[in-house]
From TrEMBL:
Keyword Oxidoreductase tagged: no
The organism's place on the tree of life at top rank: Eukaryota
InterPro entries: Leu-rich_rpt (IPR001611), Leu-rich_rpt_typical-subtyp (IPR003591), LRR_dom_sf (IPR032675), SLRP (IPR050333)
Cellular component, GO annotation: extracellular space
Name this protein carries in UniProt: Toll-like receptor 21
Gene3D superfamilies found in the cross-reference section: Ribonuclease Inhibitor
Keywords linked to the UniProt accession: Glycoprotein, Leucine-rich repeat, Receptor, Repeat, Signal
Pfam families from the UniProt entry: LRR_1, LRR_8
């Protein structure tokens, strides 16, 4: 007996396999909400109706869906929200109406939403809010009205008066020019975002923001004098970036906010004098993060930031820096993290004689133009644990580039131009756990390259030009559990390739290489000693796919739980292909249409633990009565886009735990051959 079979059994929505109360209704041609949701079950809790052409939500649009908790209606054509459109949705906590064409919010629209906590209305055309429109939303904590055409700030403040639990208000990218108001902000409101408006003066009471802890006024036309007398004593984070008439140095001389609570990004602090003055104000202050992004800084002279020396994190991203000069512009005491992304760095020099930063744990130099990294480039950070050099132009790594980084745990070198790897490069990184070399130009990996990385857990070599892996390549990797070799040009795999990691490897990704076999009669067992591997990816081999799977190919994979074989143009699968994979839970053979018309009887009979089987677009014409034998644990069966015209019900009745069956785009005929299937589906 099959307890529950679900799938594309609803006219416009798909029920998610992972949760039967979760529905997705995307890209439908229906113009009314009723036609989309009319056949959904009353136990629906999570509903996504996005990218449709729905224009109106009438009263009671969601009928008997009273259990809804999460509702997405973004990217539609909504223009009209009728009063009572969401009535009876008393359990709803999340509502997304963004990216529509709503011009206004009238009285009664949100009646019934007493438990709503998050409301998203950004990217509409809202110009008017009824003063009592948000009245029913007693529990609302977050309201997003960004990217609309609101201009009357007083009207907005009036409308949110009932929202005593409101914590976050987002009003960026509207047409607000002044913060005129009659009412106060709700007492619980702590975060206000007013960026990208046309604010010139604040024109608000001096204590208007008395309870606000985070305030974003960036990208406006605010003057220094207009904010000078506003009480911001409780603000813990103030962003005033890109206000051309705002002078932060003038403001600091007579402000109500603590200088350590200001974000100094986008304030035109591009000279040594200006930076020095800022640090004078910050002298002796304990600052969690000093943000100096987007200031147009081209050079940092020695000790220029010395008075900012009690900072934990310094972020200099999105400036015009060409070097970091061994951090001579900083003083060492407390710095823990340095971020210099999106600059013009080209070369990292030798820092063997530089002052050391004993507390520095993380450095990120991503998104630069670095092509050369000299020896001892990071000697100033002996206790570094995380280093990000990805998305640069690094061509070569010197023998002693990382020398002294004995405590480094994570190293990202992905998306560079590296062609060769040498054993000496990683010699001093004995604590390294994660090494990412994805998307470089490495063609050959030589023996013992990673020999000095005994604690490495994850090695990512995907997206390179590797044609062969030499025997002994992975020697020394005593704890490697995840190996990514996908999107390379490997044409041959042997058991010797994995010597050194056989006892620890758990995840092996060989997707999109150039593996190819002419016949399933040959015998090959490259994974014979990989008894701990639980995830194996072999899908989409280039350019012609695997086409065949040799005998005993999966021998030794006794712990395998997930096997990906899709997009391989398999012409034949023998009945013993998956023999020995008794722990397999997920098997994907989808998009393998290359002449297979039938699956061998009992091909899955050894897979008693299998829970998900994907057979989409395999050109199957018939299913043998024993093809799904012993699949008593199967929960999801994907038969989409096959040439099946009839299905024997006995096949399905053997799968006693089946929950999801997908027969979409199968040309099933309404004939006597399918009468039993019809009755079974109705039942």
């Amino acid at each position: 007996f099959i307890s529950l079979v679900t799938g594309r059994g609803y006219r416009n929505c798909i029920q998610k396999f992972e949760s039967n109360d979760n529905f997705i209704c995307l890209n439908r041609l229906e113009v009314t909400i009723h036609k989309v949701v009319f056949d959904l079950p009353p136990y629906t809790r999570n509903l996504t109706i996005s990218n449709n052409i729905i224009k109106k939500l009438p009263f009671g649009s969601f009928g008997n869906l009273t259990k809804l908790q999460y509702l997405k209606l973004d990217h539609n054509k909504l223009e009209t929200l009728s009063p009572g459109a969401f009535s009876n949705l008393t359990y709803l906590t999340y509502l997304n109406l963004s990216y529509n064409q709503i011009p206004s919010l009238s009285l009664g629209v949100f009646i019934g939403l007493k438990n709503l906590r998050c409301l998203y209305l950004e990217n509409n055309s809202i110009a008017f809010l009824h003063p009592e429109v948000f009245g029913p939303l007693f529990s609302l904590k977050s309201l997003n009205l960004s990217n609309n055409v609101l201009s009357n700030f007083s009207e907005v403040v009036h409308s949110i008066q009932p929202l005593q639990k409101l914590n976050t208000l987002m009003l960026c990218s509207n047409n607000i020019s002044f913060l005129n108001h009659i009412h106060k902000l709700p007492s619980n409101l702590s975060k206000v975002f007013l960026c990208k408006n046309i604010l010139q003066g604040l024109n608000c009471h001096q204590d208007f923001f008395e309870n606000i802890s985070s305030l974003d006024l960036s990208y406006n036309n605010i003057t220094t004098s207009s904010i000078q007398n506003i009480n911001l004593s409780k603000v813990k984070y103030l962003l005033v970036a890109s206000n051309p008439h705002f002078d932060v140095l003038n403001y600091l001389d007579n402000s109500t906010i603590k200088p350590e609570n200001i974000d100094y990004s986008g304030l035109n602090l591009n000279t040594s004098t200006k930076l020095s003055q800022v640090c004078q104000h910050l002298r002796g202050k304990n600052i969690s993060t000093l943000k100096l992004l987007e200031n147009g800084i081209r050079h940092l002279s020695e000790n220029i930031l010395e008075n900012c020396s009690l900072t934990n994190t310094v972020d200099l991203s999105r400036n015009r820096l060409k070097d970091i000069l061994c951090l001579k512009f900083l003083k060492p005491p407390t710095l823990k993290s340095l971020i210099v992304e999106h600059n013009l760095l080209k070369q990292l020099i030798n820092c063997s004689k530089a002052a050391q930063f004993p507390n520095l744990k993380s450095i990120s130099l991503r998104y630069n133009r670095i092509w050369s990294v000299e020896s001892y480039a990071f000697a100033f950070s002996p206790n570094l644990e995380e280093l990000k050099l990805n998305i640069n132009n690094i061509l070569f790594l010197d023998m002693y580039t990382f020398w002294g980084l004995s405590k480094l745990k994570s190293l990202r070198l992905d998306n560079n131009l590296l062609t060769d790897l040498y054993k000496s490069t990683f010699m001093d990184l004995k604590e390294l756990k994660n090494l990412n070399l994805r998307n470089n130009r490495v063609a050959v990996i030589f023996k013992n390259v990673f020999h000095y990385l005994p604690n490495l857990n994850i090695l990512d070599l995907g997206g390179n030009k590797i044609t062969q892996v030499k025997i002994g390549t992975f020697n020394g990797l005593k704890h490697l559990s995840k190996l990514y070799l996908d999107r390379n040009q490997i044409k041959k795999i042997t058991g010797e390739m994995f010597s050194g990691v056989e006892a620890t490897l758990q995840v092996l990704d060989l997707m999109s290489n150039q593996l190819h076999f002419e016949s399933s009669r040959e015998e090959l067992s490259p994974f014979l000693n990989l008894s701990k591997v639980y995830d194996l990816k072999l899908q989409a081999q280039q350019s012609f796919g695997l086409t065949a799977i040799p005998r005993k190919f999966f021998s030794g994979l006794t712990s395998l739980q997930a096997l990906y074989l899709s997009q391989n143009r398999l012409a034949h699968l023998s009945s013993d292909t998956f023999q020995g994979l008794s722990n397999l839970k997920f098997l994907s053979l989808g998009e393998d249409c290359n002449g297979i018309q039938n699956l061998s009887p009992g091909i899955f009979s050894n897979l008693s633990s299998l829970e998900v089987l994907d057979l989409e677009n395999m050109c199957l014409q018939t299913l043998d009565s024993d093809v799904f034998l012993n699949l008593t644990s199967l929960k999801k069966l994907q038969l989409t886009k096959n040439a099946l015209r009839a299905i024997n019900v006995s096949l399905l009745e053997n799968m006693t735990n089946l929950q999801y069956l997908d027969l979409w785009k199968c040309p099933l005929t309404c004939t006597c051959d399918n009468e039993e299937l019809r009755n079974w589906l109705i039942k």
